[in-house]
Amino acid sequence: MALHESAMEELGLAPMWVRRGIAQGAADELAPESTADAVVNGAPPARADRGTAGSNPAVRPEATAPIEAQSDAAMPGDIVEPAIKPVARAEAQGAHASQSRRAPPPAADTSSSPADDDFAWFDDLPAEPPSLASEVEARADSPAQPGIDTLDWPALEARVSACERCRLCERRTNTVFGVGDREADWMLIGEAPGENEDKQGEPFVGQAGKLLDNMLQSLDLARGTNVYIANVIKCRPPGNRNPEPDEVARCEPYLQRQVALVKPKLIVALGRFAAQSLLKTEASISSLRGRVHEYEGVPVVVTYHPAYLLRSLGDKAKSWQDLCLARDTWRNAAAQGEAEK
């Protein structure tokens, strides 16, 4: 330092704190790591030749400098850089340095399983899920089945044999399509196949079937001779329970087509469930008996199911009355048909 500058400093005429702040800033930039360590440890950073003002970094030197030095501080040509700015810069640099000096996190242990094991369960998935457009396109490419109401006898029987329109297909042994004369005047419709019908694929077998044959014989009729026998449901319900409404709705188009193909002059509904399904009613069988109803334009007479008559022998007389009503209705329909010719 020149002599005249030393003399000015001794007399308190030179802005000594300005040059000290600049010198200290340069020192901080040359040794940031020592300052950073002090900041991280919570101690105030050491400043060379700071005097009383340097004991607290938050206190600016202007506050403690002599009044004479403050009056001469703003001299023309002097570059004033507050001492607090190098400290702030040192703190930022120290934080970055302390972060860089931290030990790296321990590497994950991959010895137990390879890294790609986390995604091994994706191997069974398709590479690209099918889009809705592709599904619609696939359905469009598949040939559409003709409507049930357009099928002939062979096509209708094949459609019923392969039917999966409801849950009853899951446990069936055979579908029970129907049996008899396909150009008959009489059409007998029962409820649903039982255990024996499911095994043999034919309606009304076993003891109930024998009783039905005797009832037909009393009318000078026989199974397969001017008589066609079918059921509302083509598959056996589990445990011989009553079919559910949705099962009836899904199977009814088959029965409607059978009626349209046979063109009977009379339908006999055997049992409460068959009568309620055909007539779309919940009325009791006793209230439905003794009257002529209609299904698909065909007269309908309601009587008891043969299986019920095996348990209630006293109602056989009532069933005979129903059969007589059915015979009279058939004769009237036949006479009307002859008159129209």
UniProtKB/TrEMBL annotation:
InterPro entries linked to this entry: UDG_Type-4/5, Ura-DNA_glyco_family4, Uracil-DNA_glycosylase-like, Uracil-DNA_glycosylase-like_sf
Catalytic activity reported: Hydrolyzes single-stranded DNA or mismatched double-stranded DNA and polynucleotides, releasing free uracil
EC number(s) reported in the record: 3.2.2.27
The keyword Zinc-finger is annotated on this UniProt entry: no
Keywords: 4Fe-4S, DNA damage, DNA repair, Hydrolase, Iron, Iron-sulfur, Metal-binding, Nucleotidyltransferase, Transferase
Keyword Ubl conjugation belongs to the record: no
Family annotation (Pfam families): UDG
NCBIfam families recorded: UDG_fam4 (TIGR00758)
Official protein name in the record: Type-4 uracil-DNA glycosylase
Protein source organism: Paraburkholderia caribensis MBA4
